[in-house]
Amino acid sequence: MEIFLWMILAFLIFQRLGELALANRNRKWMVERGAKEWGQGHYFLFILLHSSFFVCIIAEFVWTPYVQQPFFSVALAGFFVLQVLRIACIRTLGKRWNTRILVLPDEEPIRKGIYRFVKHPNYVIVFFELMVIPVLFHAYLTALIFPFLHLLVLTVRIPAEERALQERI
């Protein structure tokens, strides 16, 4: 089981690095089309949050004996559902998906796919990922702390996004 979990962790780390590369490509594409970037001052908080998230999972996983819990299967199923939803967000936004706040001046916000139902679905998905993923690794302290930290960062991020969208024209 532990090998399987190391595989999941490696997948997640490579996935997040791939998403950063995709975000950089998308950023270049949007800037070429006149996009303006907002909220650069708090972007480091996301990098810090997500980097330390993985460090904390690894630390808890290595330093505590692993015992598979009865709710592991539920957490694993939740993980897979969250991955599908995460991919749906990225696909729906296409080249407009980014880890930064970039707004094309004369374009309306995308309101299709999952965005028809939830204004900031990726943040909701990440909130639940920050709870579910650590549970897979019996990193319960990480599962308690990081969703809360995510919410704190969002108190800065979401208002910055809303301002960017209001002032885009």
TrEMBL record:
Keywords in alphabetical order: Membrane, Transmembrane, Transmembrane helix
One annotated Gene Ontology cellular component of this protein: membrane
Residue ranges crossing the lipid bilayer per the database entry: 6-23, 43-64, 70-90, 123-149
Pfam families cross-referenced by the UniProt entry: ICMT
Membrane topology classification: Multi-pass membrane protein
Domain of life: Bacteria
Compartment annotation: Membrane
GO MF, one example: protein C-terminal S-isoprenylcysteine carboxyl O-methyltransferase activity
This protein's record includes keyword Transmembrane helix: yes
InterPro entries noted in UniProt: ICMT_MeTrfase (IPR007269), Metal_cation-efflux_comp (IPR052527)
Keyword Transmembrane: yes
PANTHER family membership: BLL3993 PROTEIN
Name of this chain's protein: Isoprenylcysteine carboxyl methyltransferase
